[in-house]
Amino acid sequence: MRRDITGQYLSSLAGGETVRAFVPDALPPTPVLTIDEARQRLLERATLAVGRLDSVSTLLPDPQLFLYAYVRREAVLSSQIEGTQSSLSDLLLFELDEAPGVPFDDVVEVSNYIAALEHGMARLREPFPLCNRLLREMHARLMARGRGSEKAPGEFRRSQNWIGGTRPGNARFVPPPPQELDACMTALEHYINLPNEAAPVLIKAALAHVQFETIHPFLDGNGRLGRLLIALLLHQGGLLAQPLLYLSLYFKQHRNVYYELLDKVRTEGDWETWVDFFLEGVEQTAHGAVQTAQRLVALFEQDSLRIQQSGRGAANAQRLLLALRSHPVSTLKLLGAEAGISFPTAGKAMQSLIELGIARELTGQRRNRVFVYDTYLAILNEGGEAL
What we know:
Blueprint: E1 7-14, E2 17-24, H1 37-54, H2 63-81, H3 88-97, H4 104-124, H5 132-142, H6 181-192, H7 201-215, H8 222-236, H9 248-253, H10 255-268, H11 271-310, H12 314-326, E3 329-331, H13 332-339, H14 343-355, E4 359-361, E5 370-373, H15 374-380
Antiparallel strand pairs: 1-2, 3-5, 4-5
Helix pairs in contact: 1-11, 2-4, 3-4, 4-5, 4-8, 6-7, 7-8, 7-11, 10-11, 11-12, 11-15, 12-13, 12-14, 13-14
């Protein structure tokens, strides 16, 4: 449905230029979002897919292991959308020992993303409301160090920003002036805390994400926090016990369509096309996450069977494989400690895993060697290659 423009333009000063800044109308849309038969079916399919994902713990011997790995995969993907070149391997190496040679600024951004998500989820479990204060707390962690750390972490902006273009005057989009931010964010806070009966959780997440991106309340980090907001809303709304649904890969794969639809919401009021795109992404992403979990279970069973059939020393190799599942990029010392075996025993067990083609040494060095569970990492990293 075309509603015409979904806000108003106000004059604002940015970089010495006077620009037309867009102030969005408060949610929900007027007239209300059309939920016709086709859109209702799409909503039901997406909701069912998320439900299957929520029950993924029944497939996994260790659901926390999958959560650990999947959160890191998402952190890499979401940061790549903002232009970082860090990979999942880079992140795991950084977490291992802030390894030299890892692109520091890029990987710090990814690490900060994990800290922001974990803080947000911990606060919601207290319970603490999904509110502007929590978003500011998460932003403070997102921008705590590395690039952007000088851009007022944890504070709504007090100056005009813009998106695209070389200067404010030729920007692709100019968000609300700073004096309008409090009213815009207060209205968004009110909407995301409406009872579920007022709006299905997935619809609320779809609309709130666009509104947050339109307001662009921070000087930096808005894209990453706007994507985190989706995961938090699904948790708060009771659809997901754990933050396992992330649309960053979907948005990355359909980047041009994503930005085009955001613009169409603002200029034409076409919320419906955006919602369809969002729900299709939710369904695809949830199915993909379940399939990834199933593939990991099959991999673990297959590799465990190969070790069992290899004969001598199988028990210690199994222990080391369990440690690698928790830390797919790690040193022998840490893996041995995790497995509860001595360093020499861990070395022999690792050699067995290498001979079976399960593990690989990364550094080529004789000391301080780092080992990787190759196939496990490859499954997680699909679609996560740096742009």
